[in-house]
């Protein structure tokens, strides 16, 4: 990627202290960019992994989803990219007495709460229900395996209240809410 674009994105990030208001930006589509966010969280540009984490973080800050497509957006440009599963991975979890916080591979911190609930979606081969969480504006993050096992350790096992009867349900508590982690 070009250095001027990096500097422009860095200025936008500083200006908006976090994430720019990409939902408000609707420039015309410029085309498709040879950029893939792989299911394992790696960002690949023209066949080469982007190893500069600050650059990945800046691109993540201007990521936008419209329907089933993902775009990198500035006030004047819009480039379609490819995302194999979801753009982010949850790489860390922390909790206190009342709240669970997640950190993504791009540094976003998201609280598990009513605004950011767990979503169980099939992933893998064979597909298994895995927890996802919305990071922002329809952009989802999938739990890494390590975090998923950590959540299982924190979960409260219960017998299901309604049919179909499963052996066990696993529930998490955060921010005054309860979230189904899975059924086994």
What is the strand and helix layout of this fold?
Blueprint: H1 3-16, E1 31-37, E2 43-45, E3 48-49, H2 53-61, E4 63-66, E5 69-73, E6 78-83, E7 88-95, E8 100-104, E9 109-111, E10 118-123, E11 128-136, E12 139-143, H3 145-154, E13 156-158, E14 169-174, E15 177-183
Parallel strand pairs: 1-6, 7-12
Antiparallel strand pairs: 1-2, 2-3, 4-5, 5-6, 7-8, 8-9, 10-11, 11-12, 13-14, 14-15
Give the class from helix and strand content and strand pairing: alpha+beta
Average pLDDT taken over every residue? 88
SSE topology string: HEEEHEEEEEEEEEHEEE
Rg to the nearest angstrom?
18 Å
Please state roughly what percent of the residues sit in beta strands, choosing from under 5%, 5-15%, 15-25%, 25-35%, 35-45% or over 45%.
Answer: 35-45%
Number of strands: 15
The level 1 CATH classification of the largest domain is Mainly Beta
CATH homologous superfamily placement of the largest domain: duf1285 protein
The coarse overall form would be elongated
Question: What is CATH's topology name of the largest domain?
Answer: duf1285 protein fold
The biggest sheet amounts to: 6 strands, mixed
| Helix fraction by DSSP (H/I, runs of at least 4) | 10-25%
When the domains are counted, the total is 2
Number of helices: 3
Strand order of the largest sheet: 3-2-1-6-5-4
Distance between the termini: 45 Å
CATH architect. name of the largest domain: Roll
Low-confidence segments: none
InterPro entries: DUF1285 (IPR010707), DUF1285_beta_roll_sf (IPR023361), DUF1285_C (IPR048342), DUF1285_N (IPR048341)
Domain DUF1285: 20-86, 87-180
Organism: Microbulbifer salipaludis
Pfam families: DUF1285_C, DUF1285_N
């Amino acid at each position: 990627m070009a250095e001027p674009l990096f500097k422009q994105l860095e200025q936008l990030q500083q200006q908006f202290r976090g994430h720019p208001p990409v939902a408000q930006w609707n420039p015309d589509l410029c085309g498709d960019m040879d950029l893939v966010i792989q299911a394992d969280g790696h960002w690949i540009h023209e066949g080469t992994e982007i190893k500069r984490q600050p650059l990945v973080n800046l691109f993540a800050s201007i990521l936008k989803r419209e329907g089933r497509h993902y775009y990198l957006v500035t006030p004047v440009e819009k480039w379609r990219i490819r995302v194999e599963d979801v753009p982010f991975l949850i790489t860390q979890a922390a909790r206190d007495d009342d709240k669970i916080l997640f950190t993504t591979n791009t540094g976003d911190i998201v609280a598990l709460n009513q605004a950011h609930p767990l979503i169980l979606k099939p992933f893998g081969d064979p597909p298994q229900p895995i927890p996802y969480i919305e990071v922002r504006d329809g952009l989802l993050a999938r739990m890494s395996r390590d975090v998923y096992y950590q959540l299982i350790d924190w979960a409260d096992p219960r017998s299901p209240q309604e049919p179909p009867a499963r052996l066990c349900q696993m529930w998490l508590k955060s921010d005054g809410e309860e979230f189904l982690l899975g059924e086994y």
